[in-house]
Each structure stands twice: as structure tokens, then as C-alpha cells.
Amino acid sequence: MCHTRRADSDLLRVGRGAQGAWQVGRGVGRGVWLCGVGECQGQLGVHHIARALKSEVHASDLAAVQELLVKFHQ
How far apart are CA 65 and CA 16, in angstroms? Predict the structure, then answer.
């Protein structure tokens, strides 16, 4: 994660929806803000998501987020 300051419009927000499914975009509650640089997304780890959400996160959550980001960039 690069920790570079960017405008909100240059970042992607990933969070859980009301049903618990991961989604890209603004939503209710806590989310993970990521820059669109592939290098930063490649460094994304379970601990990054857990810290941002202030909750327990599993490897399956990381896989779901990474899959969602790949689909978003297509």
C-alpha cells in the first residue's frame, strides 16, 4: 500500500454491502480505500482490510476483494 494522498475521485472504495457481499463504490459503514495502481493492489493483504474495517477478515475476503477489483478494471 503506497499511502500516497489522493483525491477521493482517484481512489476506489471497497466495502461490504448490507447482505455481506463485497462491492465497489460508496456505501454505508467502513470501507477500504485503494488507489487504482496495480502495484498497490498487488500488495493488498488481509491485515490491510482488517485494519481498515476494524473487524476480523479471512483469506476468502481478500480473494473476493481482489476478484472484484479485477472485474472492475476490465
Answer: 10
Cα angle 37-40-44, degrees, rounded to a multiple of 5: 135
Spatial contact of 69 and 48, defined as CB atoms under 8 Å apart = no
pLDDT, averaged per 10 consecutive residues of the chain (74 residues), comes to 80 86 88 78 87 92 89 76
* Whole-Å CA distances, 6 to 3, 21, 31, 55, 58: 9, 26, 16, 25, 28
Domain parsing of the chain, residue ranges: 8-73
pTM: 0.77
